[in-house]
Amino acid sequence: xHEALIVQVGxxxxxxxxGRFARRHPxxxxxxxxxxxxxxxxxxxxxxxxxxxxxxxxxxAQAGNLAGAAARASGCSKGAPASVVSTRDTSSLTALIRxxxxxxxxxxxxxxxxxxxxxxxxxxxADMSHRGFGLPLPPTQGEALPPPGPAAEQWAQRHGVGRDRxxxxxxxxxxxxxxxxxxxxLAAELLPPTRGVSQTAAGDExxxxxxxxxxxxxxxxxxxxxxxxxATVAPMADGAAAAVVASPSAARRLGLEPVARVVAEAAVGGxxxxxxxxSPSAARRALAIAGVTAGDVRRVExxxxxxxGIAHWESSCPDLAEALNPDGGSLALGHPQGATGLGLLxxxxxxxxxLGGGANGLAACDAVDGHGVAVLLET
Length: 379
Description:
alpha/beta
């Protein structure tokens, strides 16, 4: 079995919904990210054996095999098969796992992985309907399961996590992200300007929007006196991310220098009505597969769909809590669903690189249907 190496990984800035990327086409934005990550890695586009793209809502502008359209926009080989992976919020991390499997099996030498979501054009839930096309759940299941937001709020109520605690976690995320932006750490994970991505220097749009902690005074999103507010739910956003995954033999043959190694990964199912995802369990499974202890993990990058997710992680994995999101997360930067997972990987690789060789870290993401995914990296 071959090892799977990350040759390069990065992301675009994340744009506010109806912000700077609102008029872009998702294939154009992701195509620019593909072109940039290929150029940064030094990989020949003709050497790509497969293209895998995560997209949470592949309808509208994101339909019609977005992976192939983005690959063509980047100048990637027309001979490489391209497909879209859709597992809601975990889509691009799941696409990465499938790329890793393809490389480890020997079926592929180089895989181009992407993630994209233009939520200005295709908002969350655009593919869901209680009537008409879609019908994602049988009527009896649809009535029994609360939507993700109310389910997360019910989790907080069951576990005695109050609004003050949730707002404190959200404020911490935004404070850490602003500090990381000021120090230039976030800029280090951004791809350089290229086709379709001309505003990289502007940074993440929501961090520069001048929003204040007063957002926490808003009424509850799911009930008038509810626990979750606009301050404690990740805002919809636009963005893309990309990575080049290769086997050691392909990297040597093509003269590519890896930046990290995928040590282990895991995906765990969950209860859609539980109000919290299963990424803590996925992280434990990945560590067990690798024979790595929590004490060996220097950094954890978690997708912050709701502030409740942070509280859940800290209670489920207290031995990893100190390593969790040192530079903030989705509550500050926004959550472009299909791009978030690979965005976490870009932040993780950058953070581990600053610690020197041999550092381990986890990227973890939950999905609104309760499942969770985790990837263990070593630099």
